[in-house]
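Schema walkthrough. Field components (list of strings):
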Amino acid sequence: MDTIEGTARCFGDSVDTDMLAPGLYMKAPMAELAKHCLEALDEEFAASVKPGDVVIAGRGFGIGSSREQAAQALLHLGIRAVVARSFGGIFYRNAFNNGLMALQSAEAVELFETGDRVSLDPRTGCLTNLSRSRGCVCAPVPPNLLEIARAGGLVPYVKARLGEPRQESQNA
Amino acid sequence: MPGFTLAEKIVARASGREGVRAGDVVTCRLDLAMIHDSGGPRRVAPILERLGAGVWDPARVVLVNDHFAPGFDAESAAILHGSRRWAKANGIAAFYDMRGICHVVVPEHGHLRPGMFAIGGDSHSPTGGAFGCLMFGVGATDMACALATGDTWLRTPETMVVEIDGALPLGVCAKDVMLTLCRRLGMDGAGYRVVEYRGSAIEAMDMQERMTLCNMAAELGGLSGIVPADETTWRYLDRFGHPRPDDLARLRSDADAEIAEIVRLGPSEIGPQVAAPHSPENTSAVDTFAGVAFDVAYIGACTGAKLVDLQMAASVLKGRSVASSVRLLVAPASQRTIEMAAADGTLAILTAAGATLLPSGCGACAGYGAGVLAEGEVCLSSTARNFRGRMGDKTSAVYLGSPYTVAASAIVGTIADPREFLKG
Ligand code: SF4
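Field assembly_structure (string):
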């Protein structure tokens, strides 16, 4: 859970799971599906996104389907954190379960524009706009989700609970 | 000390605690876990393998092949096939292969009972709340871990009440109620709460209409929807021979329970509604969209193709025919729906009007199977969501309406008010 640094990728309200993982590609392997992540909003998204980039959005990020590929597609493209005003309930769990940090902030979406340099400390929730020298603090992550995130996701977390040796790496 | 909501009572029982309150994070034992071919075996099996675990109790797992059913190419056939093999290898007796859509098949076969704590590997799992259970959707990792351990964590939800007293007008149904709520509250209006439906209009609804209410609690961003069990529920469940419990108080909210918000709708303020692309919250009265042309009228999905939904469509289409500019596709929600709709003449009315019958399954609703939309096509659909690209090509567009509205509009060829067709 080190500090994440990259470019801000901003979106509005109600980014749904069909935009993140379009139904037409749900049979395809992740490498293919991820190419279509968010293409309905930004044709160039998958091609241009870089590891460390942070998605910043309005309310209801990840509303819709329970498909976990919505979180996995972002991870596949190198996104490690999403900051939004609010999240779809299932997406929120799916994110932490897979090792994607989902942080809530009412202001973030006002403070960034796509292309701004961003730095995020997931432990403290400190979100800084390096291009415009401003920032905010996201709402604290609930303790049980922090534990899951610290374990590297739900699978290693539960594996430890089941009494197995812990040897899972972060979202391998 | 205030009393407890129904959701709190169910969570308390499932977590083995007394007096659980909204906000408490607890671990709950599962009474039932439902999975389907898309998010099920193909996703959970590799995770179970990583966990080195099997299914904790095969008798509490229901598996439904519905999303890619029937197989339409080599990949979808392989997904269904893998699901069958997994059911066998894991001793899942409650395996429904191409019997219809999971949310409809599960209660049809008596798997749900009031007071149960259940999860489903699908976002419309709140549908189960129609039977007085707390049932909600989870992703594949949550599901796999729950299948391994038999439990799952939960932040105990607050409850909001939607109360409708009085009789819904002719041509208006549960779908219109939910679209009205999507407009009024927005897609995160229920913000992780459980939506408990109350009032005489709800009491008058049959189980299938209640399923539509709970199904679309997902579109309000609710953890789930719930209708407390009443005589209608017990009468439905009697056919499965489940004994009626003595202690009915544990199956409803206390009068002094803490309710986060009460939304009252007057039946007269709910007319036929239509949601414009690309969100259920883009809802307005049907007249707003009068004259809007479309290519496909789709009556399908767990939300909009149960027996009563087909009957609503048939009541409009009886003796009439579909406009030549429109394709009317009907994908009944389950095999049993087909049987019943065949027996009572509903199917014959639909096909005589020009409907094309599609297999039971998710099909075009999820953009997976038969009936998907081509580039630029427009659809008016009885399904639950109209996100961009959901039913096919990313340039296609979907309007949502009730089965009445879809049927009436199919006759006219443009979006139309169904009440015109139901008079005398
Ligand atoms: S019919 Fe549509 S809404 Fe219902 S389970 Fe299938 S894909 Fe989901």
